[in-house]
Amino acid sequence: MATATMTAKKEKSVLWDWLTTVDHKKLAILYLVAGTLFFVKAGVMALFIRIQLMIPENDFMTGQVFNELITMHGTIMLFLAVTPLIFGFMNFAIPLQIGARDVAFPFINALGFWIFFFGGLLLSVSWFFGGAPDAGWTAYVPLSTREFAGSGMDFYALGLQVSGFGTLISAINFIVTIINMRAPGMTMMRMPLFCWTGLVTSILIVFAFTPLAAGLALLMLDRIFSGQFFLPDMGGNAILWAHIFWIFGHPEVYILVLPAFGIISEVVPAFSHKRLFGYTAMVFATIVIAFLSFMVWVHHMFTIGIGPITNSVFALATMTIAVPTGIKIFNWLFTMWGGKLVFNTAMLCAASFVPTFVLGGITGVMLSMAPVDYLYHDTYFVVAHFHYIIVGGIVFGLLAGLYYWYPKMFGHKLNETLGKIMFWSLYIGFHLTFFIQHILGLIGMQRRVYTYLGGQGFDMMNLVSSIGSFVMGAAIVVLVINIVYSAYTSERITVRDPWDARTLEWSTPTPIPEYNFAQTPQVRSLDPWFYEKVHGDGTMKPAEPMGDIHMPNGSILPFMIGLGLFIWGFGMIMLNMDNPIIPPAIVIGVGFVITFGMMVLHSKEDHGYHIPVDEVKKIEKGVG
Amino acid sequence: MSDEMSKPFPKSAMTEDERYELKRETRIQVISFAFMIGLTIMSFLSVSTETIVTGFAIPFILLLGAVQFFLQLFYFMHLKDKDHGWPNTFFTTGLVLMTPMLIALILLLGVTKW
To answer: Which of A12, A142, A601, B99 is the most buried (most CB within 10 A)?
Structure first.
């Protein structure tokens, strides 16, 4: 290994380091930052929506702006906020939990992030070019065709297409990582549940984002190149879009919620100081949920007029999902049962997730009954239902994960007092906002209406709901304050395992060296780190001798490919703009050349570099 | 070390048996590829020549398609080989998910246009 140090590490500037990084831990932080920015943006939109609906006949905004806000709120929250946040945690935790030095394809990992990011940017710049998409996040045709919707929908089709590519390749990367990169002894049935849900989510993404990509391509052809797939006058079929969208859309819900289930399944055992109850049943339930999620899409279209037999079949299939979900709920309860419970912020979020999610699940079963669905359809009851799943389920899961993994990511804990203030205000604000919307829906308030007449019994409840949303907003502000405050005042963590947790990521030193594990660990049990603490000497047994560590080189190409796709997509949208400053063909050409030029540049061989064994020993001594 | 990774090996480390297997595999690939081209030509001919009645041509083409699908996956894409459990799982999953979906879509959409 004489040439091992051939790539002498040059000091990189901070910005260049972050733009070119292929390290899964740094990409995780990039995902979290990008996801948080989009989350705050969509959250502010939600506040605007609630301000508009606070009093009857409010003229805070016009109906057009309201439509743009609800469309962007839904689209951003699902595609650009929650998706990157779960990818952030998956990026950080999965390689560590399976005992790997990085994901299988670090370059692809960076590429996935940057393509997602630029896709999100493409969607976001729509505000400055003729207004945002305004046909709802479902983009139902014919409302979203060129006849009825402005250029905003072009940004929707192209922006989601680009960011979908990023999500898709990241998911493929995770499937390969989990199948091929597990440490010796880490069998499939010894993997932490977060890895399992990460794997199943990635599989769902591969199977669900492909129909979405096809549907968006058809919509783009219709809108930009005068296609007729969805235009009934021309022989197209408008129902086809609804089918394609929901074939993607229903699994998408599980894509988002399964990693949250995984986080809960990590946090609850760690703070109950007990192993997860019914591990095998949990894995099985995850797979069954994933399978069923593809068999139920028509329940979003009960009122579209498909017929009673079809509706009954899909109603039954939908109710079946309650069974594996119930298995999970009971397993979390039994994990807590008799455990030594520690209620810090992470555990509060995780524990409160369980009843809140049950509420969302119950209304889900109510909605799955096709005859009654005619009553609930397109009312605030539906809005309340899916916010109980998404905020009460996913957001609380993500917050639990944030407080749980924060010490490993940033080397210090978040402040517990501020954390508890955040939790209680978010919890109360959330129920205040959304519980009352069930009743609003049942007494007949429609969703997606920008205002309503007074004196129909809606006034008080809407006011309460809006006040609740301000409390939620305040809770998120407290979270941001907590992050800044803790960065300055929290005590640095030097121990490996500040929570006395169970899985492999807590066996690494804090802060984690860039190679994660100096020696790949030998896994001997489920919850390997707990097993070594109890039955071994408290350190992981190495599965290989100490040696030079092969690392990938950083690269700016992922960033450039993302930028190229952004320019290319923007050029496509310019085709239908009134007075483009530059001819669209030139913009498309520039984007095309950048995208494929960077791919050609990437064809150059790059075998990475080695960290010599002496260096590794020095680093290990420093952090151990 | 990094430099040597790009150079070809002077001598193969494979055993005689392994190289025989590899040759056999190449032969199977070429034969299955030629066979699949043949199937495609047959399906095109069965429509274009008009000597075959439509009632027979449609099931005939579907049959050819099924055979080709099998060949493509198992011979051309190696699903028949050992240690292909994961790819097999994924292909099977895809089939299991997509088949009812396609059937449902065709039945539900029907011929009515909205």
So the answer is: A142
